[in-house]
Amino acid sequence: MVSDKSLLLGLLVWNVKLIAYLTLYLKIPLPPLSLYIHIPWCIKKCPYCDFNSHAIKADTPEAGYIDALLSDLARDLQLYGNLRPISSIFMGGGTPSLFSPESFDRLLCGIKEQVMLKDGLEITLEANPGTFESHKFAEFRALGINRLSIGIQSFDDRLLKKLGRVHSAQEAVAAAEIARHAGFENFNLDLMFGLPDSSPDNSKKDVATAISLKPAHISFYQLTLEPNTYFHKYPPQLPNDELIFNTQKDCQKLLADHGYQQYEVSAYSQPGLHCRHNVNYWQFGDYLGIGAGAHGKITQTLPHQITRSFKPKSPEQYLNDTHKNSGDHMIAVAELPLEFLMNHLRLKQGFTAESYQSATGLAIATLEPALSECLQQELIIHQDNRFYCSERGWNFMDNVLEKFMR
């Protein structure tokens, strides 16, 4: 029979171990914190676009939307506490560059009043290469915006027309040149391949033209027919899968030959010039999301207590009552492995057992038996303490992730 003294001693020892464990556990550093800002208006809706975007109107309340964004940020800070300094800001859409430099000046000043910003943070603005937007690039740069992401898609006028784009090939080239002259040493050009009625030569010429403009970063991704888009409802004729695959490989080699390192499924950059904001997403980092339809992710207290937030998609509703129908939910522990892998396996560098535990609070053993199966089938490689997709694993990413859904 256990004595009261032995029982008390046992409880004391257990409590000491628990306190020591929690102390160690709580010392695990929180991930970096970014800020995403969604501006949902475009000149027109592209037929392939599944983002929360809407055709701009003459009476779009630009000033009111900036007020709503700052109110939205204040509420998030109140909900989630005095968070870490912001390490990157990304303004996406839609076409944020449709807004005036004066509006972005007020927005950035309002953000600085509410939250600490890290020195040298990356501030990205998405822009289209139309003449109206590109003429504002120098003013955007003067505000401290230090990275542009320009939606080119193609340098072929025929293909641009099929994609429903409103700019020309000539404007696309001019936008990159204007960005550099405005002082943007760091800018990205978006390109798509597998376009309707396109050939491999079209894509290789697009990539070669982009390289000649010397951007720091090139995003090169396949056109997919997403649900709730015009192209999904009325599918255009696309090249066959084998042709698309060969096109991708040829263009990847061209990019690599010119110093563009692939660090993510569709992202290529000159050394050290990857998009820090997007890498934070893929490393399962934290971010506040403000704006109509924006989402966020916040880690609180313990690594596995992770909250995802969401905002109303309708710009009108967002403007009328910024906080109505906003909400959040905690990610269930059982969902964390897949959530983590869906992001980390997009990166060439993959992940370590330590980064998995730090981000999720779970031991690497919780990825079994799927992890062992992927290693055995050489879909994932374990080398130098890192797990990352093999070339075949990257090409069949959906199949890899399906193994972790069982």
Architecture overview:
With 406 residues, this protein is α/β, with parallel strands linked by helices. It folds into two domains: 33-280, Aldolase class I (TIM Barrel, Alpha-Beta Barrel), CATH 3.20.20; 333-406, Orthogonal Bundle (Arc Repressor Mutant, subunit A), CATH 1.10.10. The protein has 17 helices and 16 strands. The strands form four sheets. A nine-stranded mixed sheet has the order 9-10-8-7-6-5-4-1-11, sandwiched between helices. The protein has a three-stranded antiparallel sheet with strand order 12-13-14, with no helix packed on it. The chain has a two-stranded parallel ribbon with strand order 2-3. The longest helix has 23 residues, at 4-26.
Topology record:
Blueprint lengths: L3 H23 L6 E7 L1 E2 L11 E2 L6 H19 L5 E8 L7 H14 L2 E11 L3 H4 L2 H6 L4 E7 L3 H6 L6 H13 L5 E7 L6 H13 L4 E6 L7 H4 L7 H17 L3 E4 L2 E3 L6 H7 L3 E5 L4 E5 L6 E5 L4 H6 L6 E4 L5 H9 L8 H8 L9 H7 L3 E4 L2 E4 L1 H5 L1 H7 L3
Q: What is the average of the pLDDT values? A: 91
What is the makeup of the main sheet? 9 strands, mixed
Work out the count of structural domains.
2
* Number of strand elements: 16
The rounded distance between the terminal residues' Cα atoms is: 46 Å
Strand content: 15-25%
Task: State the CATH topology of the largest domain.
Answer: TIM Barrel
Structural class of the secondary structure composition? alpha/beta
Q: Can you count the helices?
A: 17
CATH homologous superfamily label of the largest domain: Aldolase class I
| Rounded Rg | 23 Å
Widest sheet: strand ordering? 9-10-8-7-6-5-4-1-11
Uncertain regions spanning at least 5 consecutive residues: 5-26
Share of helix, binned: 40-55%
| CATH class division of the largest domain | Alpha Beta
Secondary-structure arrangement, i.e. CATH architecture of the largest domain: Alpha-Beta Barrel
Principal-axes geometry comes out as globular
